[in-house]
Amino acid sequence: MPDSEFRILFIADVVGHPGRDAVKALLPGLKKELRPNLTILNGENAAGGFGLTAKIAAELKGAGADVITSGNHVFAQKDFLGELPSLQNVLRPANYPPSAPGQGWCVVGAGGRQVLVLNLIGRIFLDSLDDPFRAADAILAAHPEVRIVFCDMHAEATSEKAAMGWYLDGRASAVVGTHTHVPTADARVLPGGTAYVTDVGMVGPRDGCIGMDKNVVIQRFLTGVPNRFVVASGPVTFNSVLVTINGSSGRATSIQRIDREHV
What we know:
alpha/beta; seven-stranded mixed beta sheet
């Protein structure tokens, strides 16, 4: 690997116990194979399919994650409200109101470089929070010295994620979309040097509905009656991307899908 080359492995939304098991089984080998300088993982669904806990965050870090991002389910586990502020490099979306626990960005040292990781959440079809575009501007303005910038844009609407990719093109090294659990085939480097993909996918049961038991989900659609979603079982799809960045300029040179299966 050239001295100026910096690699970030980003792992998509981890869903429940099956997703955590897949991370523990596959991530150590992937890190040996791909040699990322930094590994980031979205853990907002890691606790039973909804939310995160301090214990599970430690479990995911023990498997090899350096930074954990999240999304709209970040506070689904009530104890996490009190746990999050003390957790290092575990993020909630930056455009939550300032009074929300935790923070939405961190600067980490890796491979001899400083990396700014920011976590944003969209507003279309989700809870109405603060403007993610303004939040991104404020975070970038506060860290002008950091050249490698990675953004997890957690959003429902593909248009909103694409807009953020274009908005940060040339200012972020990578903008990757999360939330839908369905991987997209549009990974590329934008003209300004920002690696982009609309949705990385998930690490969760392949034969469910976005990781949840398909029969429970179908019943919700057939009856309209609320029911408790449960994580599906069976083979687990492991979706991730490897972003290669020029460490001196902060511009991405490639983004590659890394997809595996864990039985």
